[in-house]
Amino acid sequence: MKSTRTIILILDACGVGELPDAAQYGDAGSATLPNLARAVGGLRMPHSQRLGLGNIATILGVDPAERPAGSFGRMAEASPGKDSTAGHWEIGGVVIDEPFPMFPHGFPKELVARFEAAVGVKTIGNIAASGTEIIEKLGAEHLKTGALILYTSADSVFQVAAHESVYPIERQYKICKKARELCVGPYNVGRVIARPFVGEPGGFVRTPRRKDFSRLPPSDTLLDVLTARGDKVLSICMIYDLFAGRGITTAIKTANNAEVMEQTIEAVSTDTEHALIFANLVDFDQLWGHRNDEGNFAKALEAYDRYLGELLEVVRDDDMLLITADHGCDPTIKSSTDHSREYVPLIVYGRGLRSGIDLGIRATFADVA
User: Fold this and answer.
1) How far apart are CA 233 and CA 6, in angstroms?
2) Residues in Cβ contact with 75 at an 8 Å cutoff, skipping those fewer than 6 apart
């Protein structure tokens, strides 16, 4: 049976083992799902197990299925780096030649000066740091002076943190749009990210109104091809931001993984318009992977799997469901809080599709497209 609708679920940061060149990125030994499962004494993910997740890698608690309901494999990233934007673009069919620029020692004084002049506000920070740690460290000074907190990480990101009582969210977005305009040429980072927070010193909390401003893909992705021929594409969570809005007909913003799965289940149950439903579960990455939080990462995976069971009940006979990831972020590697360069899982499921096929190791994420 030919599939007429596709659902793509990105389990953000859920890699399954180091790529051959992982050591060049400082990621030797990274294996997000296998290492995490061992660290917590095993994962309970029966629906993922039934589809064939345990046939892809050795994941404690997720045994290989004797007769997987889906087909299974793993994919290598052909693009250099381990950035979310590059990973998603490659899933969409675009392989980049050069990695996005990174600034592990902060951004050049010239760029910072131009940014401050353009938005009319001074900045503090300008270092590579954890988002939660830097607002705890500099949040009080930000509240006192109004200076924006500027920081980056081991990814290609220009991040601006601001308290919502000092900078209303729409102003934060305008500030980041201006940064996106300035980050060109040698400063052309993968993403400019608004990182709003609330609270008082000692109790600052980031809000769900984060917004990513990505570079434009260098060429047409699968999304552009679909919409050009008249098909409709539904984005759930940060897919819209990562593709800079290109090739997307309808976008649904969500606050957490639960909302992503609830919106996906609702769309699969009731939507008759969209040929592609494309969703990202970002909490694995931003809440648990980057914080080396093994326990909550594991709980989030098991919660996702419960939703997956509901999703499998509502897929149509002519649907194709693809489950994969964009990189790793191994929380058991305590020397790092960054993404890790890993193989990603690939599960393909459809009631009208053949099952139990070992798809092997794919040379590129672009095989999804």
Assistant:
1) 10
2) 324, 343, 344, 345, 346, 361, 362, 364, 365, 367, 368
256-291 confidence digits (pLDDT tens) = 999 999 999 999 999 999 999 999 999 999 999 999
Q: Pull the structure tokens for residue 27.
A: 């990621």
Taking a C-beta distance cutoff of 8 angstroms, is the pair 84, 12 a contact?
yes
Q: Bridge-partner residues for 127, per DSSP?
A: 151
pLDDT of residue 208 exceeding 80, the answer is yes
Distance CA 259, CA 246 (A): 23
Q: What pLDDT does residue 2 have? A: 63
pTM of the model: 0.94
Q: How far is CA 339 from CA 22, 32, 83, in A?
A: 11, 10, 7
Count of beta carbons in the 10 Å neighbourhood of residue 263: 18
For 320, the enclosing helix (H) or strand (E) is: strand 319-324
Give the DSSP letter string of 175-216: HHHHHHHH--GGG--SEEEEEEEES-TT--EE-TT-EEEEPP
Pairing mode of beta strands 5-11, 319-324 = parallel
